[in-house]
Amino acid sequence: MVYLSPKITQLPGSVSNKFYYDIEFPKGHIAIKSFDAEVVDEAGDPVSLKETYLHHWVAVRYYLRKGTKEAKHNSNSGFHQSDFIIARNAGVCNHGLTQFFGLGSETRKTSTYVPDPYGIEVGNPLEVPEGYEEKWLFNIHAIDTRGAVDAMGCTECRCNLYNVTIDEYGRPLNPDYEGGLYCCYDGTQCKVKNGLESVKRNLYLKYTVKWVDWSDSIVPVKIFIFDVTDTWQKTGIHDCLIEFDVEQSTTGVATNDFISTRRSSVSFPTSGDVVYGVAHLHSGGIGSALYGEDGRVICSSKAIYGEGNDAGDEAGYIVGMSTCYPEPGSIKITNGEILTLESNYKQFLYITLKRTCTKGDQNESSQPKGYTT
């Protein structure tokens, strides 16, 4: 089934980072096989990342007490805690990263298919607390970069481009905080070129869900999400910080051979076979890998960069991530095994070439002779 999210209205440079409650979703006791998404305009055409950058989208399962008045689409929950229960994934993070599904700019070219005989079980009436209903919500973070002074800087949420000194709750930002989610929250505005016409447009997240009715032939799988900023190794608590600053070259100059690496470790809370794996990275990301206690590679996921201008192939943007589909039973994780997550980013050095030629300065093939860089 193909669905559309509620309308996302944007102006050049604007940021939308809202929560949409009670989204359309398959009903009944089912096994999800895949969940794919992309941003489209009102005509249903794919929208380029060069115009609207999809920072992230996540789909979260929750239980709502029956009879609770629900504000479907807004930027905050507005629910009393006892009326609203997040039915999170099986991951270890103590807060955040509760989603079942979610990606970012890479969503168009990243496979989410769960192979047979496996399936992600949802809608089991025995798991729903008495007096509650199972529902789903979206958090969609989209940044409009049309006419931006620095489009890539907007997507990196650099605070100076947003002219932001406080977070969305009015709290002052740390002076050392140069960029991140605290600077590109819902309603903020990235700097655009002077005199730019402010053209409003409506967008949607088009999402496609594939599923089968639940049966005894399906092997249920659980979703584990890890974060390379997890503090467990140092504090004993799985405090996942969500974001971090990519380390700069020690020379202070961007070079194409400098790679920034970040690692974290985690004790896996159960045992089982790995069915599928994928990483999520932002611009500059090379890839990410999960290693077992003995150093074996459990999953390695590499960034796919676009090379053109078409939606889904935008040069300079991550448009996909490679995925892991081990042979059934070939990759196992044991209860309590210490896993290591590694993410690698690269500082890209861009060189601009300027070619000049003066009248009459041509060879016999009518090609310019001189170049200056």
Q: Give, in order, the helices and strands.
A: EEEEEEEEEEHHEEHEEEEEEE
Average pLDDT works out at: 90
Assign the structural class, choosing from mainly alpha, mainly beta, alpha/beta, alpha+beta, or little secondary structure.
mainly beta
Q: Please count the helical segments.
A: 3
| Stretches with pLDDT under 50, minimum 5 residues | 349-373
Q: What share of residues is helical?
A: under 10%
Largest sheet: 6 strands, mixed
The geometry reads as: globular
CA-to-CA gap between the ends? 53 Å
Instruction: Write down how many β-strands occur, each being a DSSP E stretch of 2 or more residues.
Output: 19
Rounded to an integer in angstroms, the radius of gyration calculated over CA atoms is: 23 Å
Approximately how much beta-strand content do the residues carry? 25-35%
Protein name: Stress up-regulated Nod 19
Organism: Artemisia annua
InterPro entries: Stress_up-reg_Nod19 (IPR011692)
Describe the structure concisely for a colleague.
With 373 residues, this protein is mainly beta. The protein is built from three helices and 19 strands. The chain has helices at residues 151-155, 159-162, 232-235, and strands at residues 2-4, 8-10, 15-20, 30-41, 52-65, 73-74, 84-86, 101-103, 118-122, 132-144, 201-213, 219-220, 259-267, 272-273, 285-291, 297-305, 318-321, 332-333, 338-346.
